[in-house]
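EI: anyone free to look at a 300-residue chain?
SC: sure, send it
EI:
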Amino acid sequence: MDANRSELASLIDRCAKTDGLHATAIPRLSVLRSTRPTEPLHAVYEPAVCIIAQGSKQAILGEAVYVYDRNKYLVISVDVPVVGQVIEASEAEPYLCLKLDLDVATLGTLMLDAGPGPASVEPAPALGLSKVTPELTDAAVRLLRLLETPQDISVLAPLCEREILFRLLQGDQAAKLREIALGDTRLRQVSRAIDFIKRNYRESFHVEDLANEARMSSSALHSHFKAVTAMSPLQYQKQIRLQEARRLMLLGLCDAATASHSVGYTSPSQFSREYRRLFGLPPQRDIARLREFPDGFVAA
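SC: here you go
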């Protein structure tokens, strides 16, 4: 186990020469590096598994704090706004992590081959932690090794990815993963509501319309949406709006007033209040701070 962990860290270290998130030649696989603890970062996490080789991180969803390191992996089941922060990292021992986006089609075919398994009766929070096993680490190492033999990726990477998902389906997050792949579960209904909000976040909507989109009652939508995301649909929309406005300003595409209008706000003062409540500073000061430390933010 220790040898595999060391090799996993070494492979990620060779792939990620600078701080930040780095895509790889393997579909859906990214690696992350940070040489110092980071500021809290608001970001939308997408369905994925994150396996840390070195260092540690915390993710906050609502009131729940998820701390993970090389002994625990993180599973994300739906797109959800999270506050993430690297809490253990240094120049000598940087934070090193791999992120594999979850492919619904691969999960579905794997479930058919693996046979029946546990299923949740009610939706669970979008984030979940489980213990890293030697078998999971070994599969992750073999997947990363393929980056050093690019000619093998097209044939062998899908096999390694499939094995990683199989190992996850044997762990504590099996029910969550099965809900991602199954077509008619509460989690998939919540996911449909999330997709609708993300597509239409600039526009006002009625909860009844959102419930129809999710194919569930308004009361059930509110209950299950909050169980998964730790927020109401309107709170979710607000976070998506504010994060998009922040992104636009950080890229220098517009000022605060234009950004607020472009994401659906009609009142600049309301935008400023809600922005400060979420990010801790008014828009202009927050963007100045982000630009001062551009490499201090690692998203997953």
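EI: The CA atoms of residues 25 and 150 lie 8 Å apart.
SC: 👍
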